[in-house]
Amino acid sequence: MSCPRQFPDRRQALTAAGGLVTGAFLSLAGASPAAAREPATALAAAYTNPVIWQDFADIDVIRVGDTFYASASTMHYSPGAPVLRSYDLVNWEIAGHSVPVLDFGAKYDLNGARGYVRGIWASSLAYRPSNRTFYWLGQIDFARTYVYTATAAEGPWSRLTTINTPYYDAGLLVDTDDTLYVAYGNTTISVAQLSPDGRSQVRTQQVFTTPSSVGTLEGSRFYKINGQYYIFLTRPANGQYILKSSGGPFGPYTMRQVLLDLRGPIPGGGVPHQGGLVQTQGGAWYYMAFVDAYPGGRMPALAPVTWTSDGWPVVQLVNGAWGTSYPAPAVPAPPRQVTPMTGVDTFDRTTLAPRWEWNHNPDNTKWTSGNGLTLRTATVTNDLYAARNTLTHRIQGPTSTATVQLDHSAMRDGDRAGLALLRDSSAWIGLKRDGGVTRLVMVNGLTMDSNWNTTGTGVEVASAAVTGNTIWLRASADIRPGSARPGTFSYSTDGTGFTRLGPAFSMGNDWRFFMGYRFALFNHATQALGGAVRVPRFELSTP
Q1: β-bridge partners, 298
Q2: CA-to-CA distance for 98 and 157, rounded, in angstroms?
Q3: What is the distance between the alpha carbons of residues 253 and 234, in angstroms, rounded to a whole number?
Q4: Residues 346, 405: Cα–Cα separation, whole Å
Q5: Strands (E), 395-508
Q6: How far are the Cα atoms of 267, 281, 316, 372, 425 from residue 286, in angstroms, in the given order?
C-alpha cells in the first residue's frame, strides 16, 4: 500500500516493459487431476464483479478446509483488520477483526492527537495447521510489526508478539515444514524467517531489487506452490508482478509481469491490482484484487487464474479486460448463507456486529448496546474529526441509503448528533441543541488538509424545526467512481415519509485518504459532557 508522503502520485503514468499477460486456460503441473474432480456446486452459473462493492482494500485471501477467509486494511478505524468469510469466494460476510483495539499510541484514541491514514495498512492473514491457529501480521507507523493470533476467525484475537523490524506490506507464509516466513518491502523486497513460536525474527535478507524500468513494487503476498516460492507484488496503482524461486524462500528470484494497465470491471474505476491468490478445494486458482473506485473506496474483484507449464500465473481475461462476469467457482454447496452486509441492525446485543467500526478507538464508558445503541457525548469539540465515538459503516455500492432512527430526548445544550457522510471532506444531517431548543440541520464544509488537520468544521446550509423526541435521518450515497458523486440527506417525523434537507453534497474522489466514504453515527458536545442519544434502528438498503 503506497504511503502518500513517499509517493505523491501513485496514479501517474509509469514506464514499464512489456504488456498484459493473456492466454487461455493452462494447467498448473500436478493440478489438473484435482481439477477434474471439482465437487458439485449449488452456486449460480456466474458471478459479477466487484464481488464485494464495499471498501475492503489490500486483500489477503486464504482457504482453510472448505472456508475462505480474507483480511483488509482499515487504517484509523477500530477494531481493525476485518476478517471476511466465504464459502464460494463470491458471497462474503464479516466474521470479526484481527486487531481488537488500536493500542499503538494516544493518537489512535483521538486524545490530543489523531491517527488518520495511519494504523492498519496492507497486512497478512495466514493459517497454521500445526496448531490450528490463525495469524495476522502487520507493521504500524513504520516502527514495528505486530502479530495477533486466534483459533477462530471470529476471535477472540490476542497479541502474540511485537517485532522491532517493520515488515512493510507484509505477506506471511506458513511453509510445508511449518516454518514461518515473511516477504516485505517497497522496491527492495526482503524475506524474514521467524522463530518456531512466531514471536521473533531469526534472520532477514534482501532477495530482490525492482528494476528501474518497473518502478515501485510492494504489497507482498508469499506462497509455496508445487515446491516453488512465489512473491506476488503490486505496482501501484496499475500493475501486478510476481517473483519465483526454485532455490528456496531466500531466492534467487526471477520476475514476470502479470498485468499492466488492465481495464477493470467497474466503469470509471482503476486497474485491478494488489490482493492475493487462492486455490479452491478442486485445484482451481483465483486472484482477488481490488479496484480503486472512489469516492467509495477500493472494491474487491475476482478473476480465475491459470498457470503456464513452467509455473507462472495467468489471469483469465474477457475481451482483453478483467471480466465483469465469470463462471462461478466450482465448490461444495455452502453449509449456510453468509450474513448480508446490508440490512437492519436494532443493536439488540451488548456487542456490536462486526460490520461496525469506530473512527479511532472509542471511549467504551460512553456507549452501550443491547436496548438500541446509546451514544453519550465523549468529547467537547466543535470538530467532528476530533470527536470520539463516531461509529462508521461502509457504504454499499454503487448506490445505497442509510436510515437511522434517533431518540434525542437526552441531548443537552451544545450537543451535536446525527448521520454523516464521513471522509476528509464531509457533510451531515442531524440535530443541534442550543439554548434549550433543538433544531434539525444539514451541515457541509467539514474538510481536512493533506496532513489530515481540520481546515473546516462545517457550515450550516439548511435547517428545519423539530417536534417530538424521535426523528428519522437518512443519507443516500452514489459511490460510482469516475467523478465527484452526490450524497443527499433527508428526514422523517414518522419513519415513512421523508423530506429532503439541504443541497446535494459532492463527495470527493481523491485517493490519498485511502479509505472511502462511510456512513457515520455521531454525538459530541460543544459545551459540556453529559448528553446522550439512542439509536433503536439502523438500516442500510440498496435500490
Answers
A1: 292
A2: 6
A3: 16
A4: 10
A5: 399-407, 415-422, 425-434, 437-448, 454-465, 470-478, 485-492, 499-500, 505-507
A6: 22, 12, 9, 41, 36
**Residue 220: helix, strand or coil by DSSP?**
strand
Q: How far apart (Å, rounded) are the C-alpha atoms in residues 440 and 191?
A: 56
Q: Grid coordinates standing for 475?
A: 443519507
- In this prediction, residue 422 has a pLDDT band, given cuts at 50, 70 and 90, of very high
Contacts made by residues 437-441, CB under 8 angstroms, sequence distance 24+ = 438/408, 438/411, 438/466, 439/463, 439/464, 439/465, 439/466, 440/464, 440/465, 440/466, 440/471, 440/491, 440/501, 441/501
Residues 220 and 184 sit within 8 Å (Cβ to Cβ): yes
3-class SS letters over 344-406? EECCCCCCCCCCEEEECCCCHHHEEECCCEEEECCCECCCHHHCCCCEEEECCCCEEEEEEEE
β-bridge mates for residue 416, sequence order: 432, 524
d(CA 491, CA 63): 44
Distance CA 277, CA 225 (A): 11
Helix (H, G, I), strand (E, B) or coil at 87: coil
| Residue whose C-alpha is closest to residue 389's, from 522, 481, 502 | 522
Compute how many other C-beta atoms are within 10 angstroms of the C-beta atom of residue 309.
9
pTM, entire model: 0.92
Contact (CB, 8 A) for 47 and 63 = no
State pLDDT tens for residues 320-355: 999 999 999 999 999 999 999 999 999 999 999 999
Cell reading at 317: 481475461
Contacts of 459 (CB under 8 A, 6+ apart): 443, 444, 445
Determine the distance from the C-alpha atom of residue 307 to the mean position of all C-alpha atoms in its chain, rounded to a whole number. 28
Backbone torsions φ then ψ of 74, nearest 5 degrees: -135, 0
pLDDT tens by residue, 185-196: 999 999 999 999
- Compute φ and ψ for 527, nearest 5 degrees: -120, -55
